[in-house]
Design a protein that fits this description.
Elements lengths: L8 E6 L2 E6 L4 E4 L8 E4 L7 E2 L6 H30 L1 E2 L2 E2 L4 H30 L7 H25 L6
Antiparallel strand pairs: 1-2, 2-5, 3-4, 6-7
């Protein structure tokens, strides 16, 4: 479970439906890279689970949520990159004054704001519906657009920071 070491609830699917399970009653085993918050969760007793009354399109919900996470992370990278470009000096002036860096940051900003707009659109169907669930096509399109933006945004951030870790 992503964030299984910190999350308070886990959503589980079975043949009989969807359940919300409290992670406090689960046996947790960390997995993944060092520092990861992912965990394998096992419950000895699931009587504390909350049953969701109707079927939910989990793929749409996950696509909308992950799109929001991706867009937020890319916004943070843009913010850090602009700040670094304004602080880092080369040849007596900040690198943010160089046209090549400005152009890279401009293209990066285009990708970031397109991803943000897509993520908002992917969630909007949920805001406007009675059940607050995103529309499948909008959520899928948002996830796709955010995924398309990740590589150019990360690549530009890496370059602006002088190819050192952020």
């Amino acid at each position: 479970v992503p964030w299984g070491m910190k999350g308070e609830w886990a959503l589980a699917a079975s043949a009989s439906g969807l359940f919300l399970l409290p992670t406090a009653t689960a046996e947790r085993e960390r997995y993944g890279t060092p520092g990861s918050l992912a965990a394998d969760l096992r419950w000895a007793d699931v009587t504390s689970a909350r049953t969701l009354q109707r079927p939910i399109d989990l793929r749409s919900v996950c696509a909308a949520v992950i799109s929001g996470h991706m867009a937020g992370a890319m916004e943070k990278l843009l913010e850090q990159s602009v700040e670094h470009a304004n602080v880092r000096k080369q040849f007596g002036k900040s690198i943010g004054k160089f046209q090549a860096i400005q152009q890279q940051l401009s293209v990066m900003a285009e990708h970031v704001f397109a991803a943000r707009a897509a993520a908002e659109s992917g969630s909007r169907g949920g805001w406007q519906s009675r059940d607050y669930l995103p529309a499948p096509l909008q959520a899928a399109a948002a996830k796709s657009r955010c995924g398309d933006a990740v590589v150019p945004v990360a690549t530009t951030a890496h370059a602006v920071h002088g190819a050192v870790s952020i």
